[in-house]
Amino acid sequence: MAAPESGDGNNGAARMVTLISSDNTRFEVEAAAASLSQTLQLTILDGGGGGGDGIPLPNVDSATLSKVLEYCIKHAPAAANGGAPNATAVDRAELERFDNEFVNIDQSVLYSLIMAAHNLEIEGLQSLVAKKVADMIKGKSPMEIRRTLGFPDPTPEEQAEMNAHMLEYGWAYE
Amino acid sequence: MEPESSSLRQCRPRLHDGKPPPTEGEETGNWAELPRDALLSVLHRLEILDIIFGVGPVCHSWRRVTQEEPELWRRIDMLRLAKLEPRRYSQFQALAHSIARRSAGQCESFWAMGFPDYYFTVFSHGVRAPLLKSLRLICCNMFSFSLKEAIPKFPQLEELEFSLHTDMFNDLYEVCAAAAEACPLLKTLRLNKQRYHCNSRVEDKEAMEIAKMHGLRSLQLFGNSLGNDGLAAILDGCPQLEYLDVRHCFSIRMDRDNMHNSRCQGMEGATNAQRAPTLESMGWSSVPTDILLSILAKINAFDILMGAGLACRSWLHAAKIPELWRSVNMSFYFNKLVGKKRDDVLCAMAREAIDRSHGHLEVFVGSGFVHNDLLAYLGERLDDRAMVGEESLGIASMIELRLLQIGGNDMTNKGLVAILDNCPHLEFLDICHCVNIKIDDSLRAKLVCISKLRLPGHED
């Protein structure tokens, strides 16, 4: 795992924890980064995840977990500063640039990410992905949204229900 | 647009202005002599904690009424208990005894958060509560044997919750066993743990007892250590199960085509109750409701009504949740749409948004298309909510609109007054460029409470 670019450095060697994805890949990461997850934070405070133990995350696969950890590692220093009131504008701009690039990915990856962020309760990541998806569906018709996000074809029943609503809101399709 | 007679709805005559209706006692100031029925009509709208700590000690006659009316003790909801100040917390013992004494066997539901074991024992010993249908104990510091002994006294139990107990013990399965045996009507069970213990081994004891509750419809087991065998036993033993929440039950291995999946498919769990810890076979169209809400909250009313809210059935359901409609900003669209029907379309959208808010609307912004009849509609909807509020909750006014920005519209004083009368919490009102509004003394009088005002003629 990549080391964080700017650790706080005053704790000597930072504490590491091991996370185990659903396909049994082990990820070693600083406790501070993993603690961005509210779910993991409790376990880590209890001393879990150290040594050979590792914390199993049975509903996150390794591809998604590595992406999640990339986010956590980048955001951990700012979070450690308590939302970074004294962060420089440069730092903030750099984080923003990172965020924008980070979510510039396929919808299926976004889906795995938001589910993982939800399960692991990583607030910043949840809202980042939600914002991205919101931007993707803004100004689109229902059909365009279905295509953009790869919905399965509607069952005839569902299609009928949607059509009924479209008629009900006929004004929307003048 | 011609105002049609049908759309000029008259506002319902107001019974009062946000104050409780005057009662006979008010004349003399002698509330203690309030007729029993009148007092009861008030007491029935209070929570049990207010009755015990507030009303009871007021005076002798009120105390007697609270003691003699078993109806008041039928539904004991003390979920707020844990938030009480410590001075009152120390009155627990008295509390448990009064509940035990007064509910006189009539108690139908007992809900508590942060209720110590000893006092629950007092309650369950003293009370013969053969009618108890719902028992919910959350964050209660309990011993399982107290519960195990108490549960057989409640043969009518339909709902049982025992969640987030601070003292984790291993014999919870005995409580499940007692409930499975003594409560044949049980439909809802919640046994949530704080979290899944990462060192947990598979532990199916609780699941095996739950599997004997054959009438179960709804089951929530957050963070339980049950494994595949336990889950299979539950699915076999509870054929009527409609809702299953096994989030954070990480001992369950979900194979793509094993029997749980096929059995769970037919289950009508809410979308945010993940049926099992698996990501397969899901997609954006079945994303959990709370995630979907976080996305929809970031797009505007127009896009929800015209696009995302019609993408599929589950998105349509989510798009109707009132939470999304607290703030409705329709100022952007006036210039986007063209044609002579534009005002009608925007008004129809505004009405839909108002309907979906179910009276929770706090902010409304619109310009160019807002007429008297839309304002009347808005006022009336808010009023409906207030009426419902009075009926069911005993709260005089629940009207929440705080910000109304409707500059550049054609409405007149009449439309404006219709809404001002219904919005006691309005803090911000913008009606600049509204040429048909005439600021006269009666209107001015209605505007005094609004802290931020932008009136016609004050344009920058």
TrEMBL record, chain A:
Keywords: Ubl conjugation pathway. Involved in ubiquitination and subsequent proteasomal degradation of target proteins. Together with CUL1, RBX1 and a F-box protein, it forms a SCF E3 ubiquitin ligase complex. The functional specificity of this complex depends on the type of F-box protein. In the SCF complex, it serves as an adapter that links the F-box protein to CUL1. SUPFAM superfamilies: POZ domain (SSF54695), Skp1 dimerisation domain-like (SSF81382). The lineage of its organism: Eukaryota, Viridiplantae, Streptophyta, Embryophyta, Tracheophyta. Residues 16-75 form the SKP1 component POZ domain. InterPro entries: SKP1, SKP1-like, SKP1-like_dim_sf, SKP1/BTB/POZ_sf, Skp1_comp_dimer, Skp1_comp_POZ. Residues 124-163 form the SKP1 component dimerisation domain. This is SKP1-like protein. The gene is ga14711. It comes from Eleusine coracana subsp. coracana. GO terms for biological process: jasmonic acid mediated signaling pathway; protein ubiquitination; ubiquitin-dependent protein catabolic process. It comes from the Eukaryota.
From TrEMBL, chain B:
Pfam families: F-box-like. This is F-box domain-containing protein. The lineage of its organism: Eukaryota, Viridiplantae, Streptophyta, Embryophyta, Tracheophyta. PANTHER family: F-BOX DOMAIN CONTAINING PROTEIN, EXPRESSED, F-BOX PROTEIN SKIP19. InterPro entries: F-box-like_dom_sf, F-box_dom, LRR_dom_sf. Residues 1-29 are annotated as: Disordered. Residues 28-76, 281-328 form the F-box domain.
